[in-house]
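Table 4 source record.
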Amino acid sequence: FRWDMVDEQTYTTLIFKSMREAYNDELTRQAAAVGCPGRVGRLREGQELTELKNIASEHAASIVRMHNADLAKQIINIRIENPRANRHYYAKYITEWERTRAAWKDKQIALMTVQTARQRGRDAFLLNNPVTGKAYLEPKTAAEPECEKLVATSPHPLETAYNVPMPLHLNCIHSWVIKY
């Protein structure tokens, strides 16, 4: 049940692949938005690709650490709830816990991965192309105070989209939409 280096490497690979796809997709979207719909984003070897690999590795390590910490808490909870529990009871309880946890945690990981990569792709596009426009935070509703403020004061200069990267917090569903 405990995750190890193999799990971390697996997550690193999956996260990096997802980040690269989202980054390239964001470059493609931004190019289309400025009138170049035939341009396809392609992140090649270089500093940005290395940084995405490092981010994927950091995220994977964090995911494994958090899983193992949560697992330890669950084991303690089993002991408290049923001091006479045997290994079969532990296995059944932990298997169910992992299934339930994965149902929401996998979505959370995917959201953070895609949002982070899209923001980096947007930043790269804005840095490398002399464009003008306004940035809007979408969706237009927010529950967290930092997002509420940005939604309420939209539109923003492009510099804000660059200087305030999304996601702002865990489970943040917001992203910058650039209108050129």
